[in-house]
Design goal:
Blueprint: H1 15-23, E1 31-35, E2 39-43, E3 47-52, H2 55-70, E4 86-88, E5 91-97, H3 111-122, H4 145-153, H5 159-178, E6 185-187, E7 196-199, E8 202-206, E9 213-215, H6 218-228, H7 231-237, H8 241-252, H9 254-264, H10 269-276
Antiparallel strand pairs: 1-2, 2-3, 3-5, 4-5, 6-9, 7-8
Helix pairs in contact: 4-9, 5-8, 6-7, 6-8, 7-8
Length: about 280
Amino acid sequence: MHRPQPQQHKLPPGIVQALTERAAPGERLLEIRQVGTSSVVALTEHVAIRIARDSDTARTLIKRQQLVDALPEFSFALPRSAGPAIEQDGIVAVPTIRLRGKPHPAGSGDPKVLGALLDEIQATPVEPFSHLLAERHTFCGGPQWLDVMASQVLPLFSLAAQKIAQQILDQLSSYESDISSVDFVLSHGDLAGSNMLFEGSQVLGVLDWDLAALDDPAVDVACLAAWHGSQVIGQIAGDNTSLAARARLLRASDPLQVVAFDLLHGRSPESLAHTCS
């Protein structure tokens, strides 16, 4: 849910350059970006090379790229493979086609364009690649997401904030109890910020399918609202009041989900408690 920011990538000296030379022969390394907690992206003019820093991340990275390559053609571009995965000194790199376009300015967005994007993604049959999809709520704990937020995240907030957070958790518990009545669709899981590339109002490309899952359509509506503004929920949902209500609830739970993600990826409870205070 955040734009990747350049950071110290903590890889052996020279390894990124060496992998870039193998993955994109003849191209110059232009930039290195930290992505999440355990991978980086090396950028050349035409290739984006995702580099995993540990074996678990490497396996996940390869599986997620298999998903991207298995997805059908859309009206927008995907970061398809630009070559096979390569390995050097235990570090795995996956070269992908670098997409063009820029993130849309935050706080606005054409609901017709955003709605059409969702329609296109959600109409995709998942049977050919269902084995490559992530679990629901992988971002914040997977099947245990509510337990993680109730037992580990909630205590980190101030007492005043805990009352509001507990209300959200109670609603999420009811949401999960009733979710069997919802028809699941292909959900990207992180349609926000730099994961969507535009030229004007046109969507040119969609990046980062790592959280793609068979899930509630409201998940991606909530993600779009996080970036383009809460007004898009009603604009996209239209007369579907149930979809709008679920999206607003998921949007309200974003702060809890983000803290859960940070907690599960190595930030200490003490550090997070300071952040949540």
